[in-house]
């Protein structure tokens, strides 16, 4: 896989303490990037940072603690990243959860929706100005949203966006992944020709701890662990979209690993994407109404 030299580049990776996020952070660090790890648990983040340092030839690995389920944490994170770095070349929105039972965050939002969709939506909004500046000064900046083939076969139910009527963990997860693709498409439309690109990637069926949210899926995952790809394999797609010269200027596309693919038909619904965008702004406390604004 042909990748750019990322020396002097700053790459933000959420959920970087384990699984695909950690492997992505290692892959980008090995290309010379300064990696801003975003982790919820500081101890686990520090342990992962040691592993990443051991895997690369420099010490430009920074740990930023934030609970992405809490919008005030996401805002503080975004402001801290913007203040810390004078450029952000890559944002990998990787962090995600699967919840077997419905629960709400401290903001009163269903947890799967909050972490898998609203957190990257909000963080991207906060960091976009710095990324636009980076693209203007250095030629490009890239947003990589980690999605899933689980987006197929579901639809966004605006009458029950938070799963209050008959919650299903699998359905909530699938809808959040469809939201990732819809967000990518709408974001790509809005940042067209700015030098910033946004793409979504399915990393494959990967052995991670995402299924810890439900006992029976955790048992199945352990039983068939031999069938799954390693996190390093799952990270190939995100690293490719973050660092490959081959995708320079590619915008608003869906990838299965390193191969461009077609998402579900529902992911192309522009009205749904626009409505989800407005509702997401409302749910994250951002003003709604001026469609002439970039974001």
Describe the protein in words:
With 295 residues, this protein is of the alpha/beta class. The chain has a single domain (10-283), classed as NAD(P)-binding Rossmann-like Domain (Rossmann fold, 3-Layer(aba) Sandwich). The chain is built from 9 helices and 8 strands. The chain has an 8-stranded mixed sheet with strand order 3-2-1-4-5-6-7-8, sandwiched between helices. Strand 5, helix 5 and strand 6 form a beta-alpha-beta unit. The two termini are 33 Å apart.
Topology:
Elements: E1 10-14, H1 19-30, E2 34-39, H2 42-55, E3 61-65, H3 71-84, E4 90-93, H4 111-138, E5 141-146, H5 169-190, E6 196-202, H6 215-223, H7 231-234, H8 236-243, E7 254-256, E8 259-261, H9 270-283
Parallel strand pairs: 1-2, 1-4, 2-3, 4-5, 5-6, 6-7
Antiparallel strand pairs: 7-8
Helix pairs in contact: 1-2, 1-8, 3-4, 4-5, 5-9
Structural class: alpha/beta
**Rg for CA atoms:** 18 Å
Number of helices: 9
- CATH homologous superfamily descriptor: NAD(P)-binding Rossmann-like Domain
CATH class descriptor name: Alpha Beta
Q: What integer is the average pLDDT?
A: 91
Q: What fold name goes in the CATH topology slot?
A: Rossmann fold
Strand residue content = 5-15%
State the end-to-end distance. 33 Å
Share of helix, binned: 40-55%
Low-confidence stretches: 216-228
């Amino acid at each position: 896989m042909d990748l750019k030299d990322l020396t002097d580049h700053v790459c933000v990776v959420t959920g970087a303490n384990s699984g695909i996020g950690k492997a992505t952070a290692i892959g980008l660090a090995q290309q010379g990037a300064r990696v801003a790890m975003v982790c919820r648990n500081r101890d686990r983040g520090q342990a992962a940072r040691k592993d990443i340092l051991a895997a690369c030839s420099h010490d430009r690995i920074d740990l930023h603690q934030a609970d992405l389920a809490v919008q005030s944490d996401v805002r503080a994170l975004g402001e801290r990243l913007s203040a810390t770095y004078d450029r952000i070349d890559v944002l990998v929105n990787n962090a995600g959860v699967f919840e077997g039972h419905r629960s709400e965050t401290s903001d009163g939002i269903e947890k799967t929706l909050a972490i898998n969709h609203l957190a990257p939506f909000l963080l991207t909004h906060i960091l976009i100005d710095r990324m636009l500046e980076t693209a203007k000064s250095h030629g490009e900046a890239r947003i990589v949203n980690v999605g899933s083939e689980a987006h197929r076969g579901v639809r966004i139910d605006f009458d029950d966006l938070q799963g209050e009527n008959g919650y299903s963990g699998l359905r909530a997860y699938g809808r959040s992944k469809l939201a990732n693709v819809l967000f990518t498409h709408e974001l790509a439309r809005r940042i067209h020709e700015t030098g910033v690109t946004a793409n979504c990637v399915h990393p494959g069926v990967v052995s991670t701890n995402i299924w810890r949210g439900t006992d029976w899926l955790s048992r199945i995952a352990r039983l068939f662990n031999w069938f799954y790809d390693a996190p390093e394999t799952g990270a190939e797609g995100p690293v490719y979209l973050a660092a490959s010269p081959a995708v320079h200027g590619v915008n608003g596309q869906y990838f299965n690993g390193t191969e461009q693919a077609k998402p579900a038909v529902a992911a192309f619904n522009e009205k749904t994407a626009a409505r989800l965008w407005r509702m997401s702004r409302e749910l994250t406390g951002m003003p709604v109404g001026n469609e002439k604004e970039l974001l």
